[in-house]
Amino acid sequence: MSFNDEAVQFTNDDASCSKSFAIQRGYWNDPYILYFYKQTERKSPEISIGYYARVHSIRYLLKEFIKSVNRNCQIVSLGAGYDTTYWNLKDENLSPRSYIEVDFPNVTMKKCRAIKEQCDLLGKLQSEDDDIQLSKTEIHAFDYHLIAVDLREIKQLEQKLKACFIDKNLPTLFISECVLVYMDVDCSENLLKWIAKEFDKPAFINYEQVNMNDRFGELMITNLRQRGTELQGVRACQNLQTQVDRFEQNGWNHVECMKMIDVYRNLPQVDTQRLEKLERFDEKGLLDQLLEHYCLTWVSKGSQAFDVSEISIRNM
């Protein structure tokens, strides 16, 4: 494992800390995050609002996908970290046939420990009379799997997914949040190409940086580099077109991409007004600048695949 790999894994703690603070301040509700990450530190309102837009929009698309196929689908969360979506879907009776989370062993080990220690988490894993298989770094239950693998090792990833009884003929949604950008572009493109080739009905939701060639983007790159984190895949994050090209050039034929500032502006006005009144909020310009540098891309492949054109983030 390289120094950059270790630094990338620490970004999971950063994201979890930001989410935990925002949830405690009332930006959205999630009863499960504190089982994985209890420490919080104060974050600025624009950070909390940005995370709300991120979580809300990804879960909107995810739920629309699940409902469109009557839950007869699989979800694969790449670089899942301490994400709690599986448990929240359970509470909403929107569980897919299988939910698979993938991350580095050091991350899955901590998540395994938290799940084992909390009855509220462990109790929601369906067993269907089968024993839940628990190891130091992995969990296998009837409809939930947590696996430890480096996403750059595609052969190993494929083997691990087979152990989860993944069905390549079933509609399968892959989710990545600020994951591909930490991989060399060749590695991320190989991953996208493999998914498009191997799965019959794949879809993909990708959240990450964009517009990284301006002054704000350069500062973001510099700040992360000073913390030991290199954005190895930043070449694909120059603008919306490079984000689209990355998928279209690797086997995907239905691609939509939107800057998060436009996602935020598309939220119901009652939501944005509530968010901006939760705390003293004077830096609207800073929020706009932050949201200009992240984007949401939702993708599918093939005429028989899930058609992303049927879902519009504009209808949230």
TrEMBL record:
<dbReference type="GO" id="GO:0032259">
    <property type="term" value="P:methylation"/>
</dbReference>
<feature type="binding site">
    <location>
        <position position="54"/>
    </location>
    <ligand>
        <name>S-adenosyl-L-methionine</name>
    </ligand>
</feature>
<feature type="binding site">
    <location>
        <begin position="150"/>
        <end position="151"/>
    </location>
    <ligand>
        <name>S-adenosyl-L-methionine</name>
    </ligand>
</feature>
<feature type="binding site">
    <location>
        <position position="79"/>
    </location>
    <ligand>
        <name>S-adenosyl-L-methionine</name>
    </ligand>
</feature>
<dbReference type="InterPro" id="IPR029063">
    <property type="entry name" value="SAM-dependent_MTases_sf"/>
</dbReference>
<comment type="similarity">
    <text>Belongs to the methyltransferase superfamily. LCMT family.</text>
</comment>
<comment type="function">
    <text>Methylates the carboxyl group of the C-terminal leucine residue of protein phosphatase 2A catalytic subunits to form alpha-leucine ester residues.</text>
</comment>
<dbReference type="GO" id="GO:0005829">
    <property type="term" value="C:cytosol"/>
</dbReference>
<feature type="binding site">
    <location>
        <position position="177"/>
    </location>
    <ligand>
        <name>S-adenosyl-L-methionine</name>
    </ligand>
</feature>
<dbReference type="InterPro" id="IPR007213">
    <property type="entry name" value="Ppm1/Ppm2/Tcmp"/>
</dbReference>
<dbReference type="GO" id="GO:0009966">
    <property type="term" value="P:regulation of signal transduction"/>
</dbReference>
<keyword id="KW-0489">Methyltransferase</keyword>
<dbReference type="InterPro" id="IPR016651">
    <property type="entry name" value="LCMT1"/>
</dbReference>
<protein>
    <recommendedName>
        <fullName>Leucine carboxyl methyltransferase 1</fullName>
        <ecNumber>2.1.1.233</ecNumber>
    </recommendedName>
</protein>
<dbReference type="GO" id="GO:0018423">
    <property type="term" value="F:protein C-terminal leucine carboxyl O-methyltransferase activity"/>
</dbReference>
<keyword id="KW-0949">S-adenosyl-L-methionine</keyword>
<keyword id="KW-0808">Transferase</keyword>
<dbReference type="Pfam" id="PF04072">
    <property type="entry name" value="LCM"/>
</dbReference>
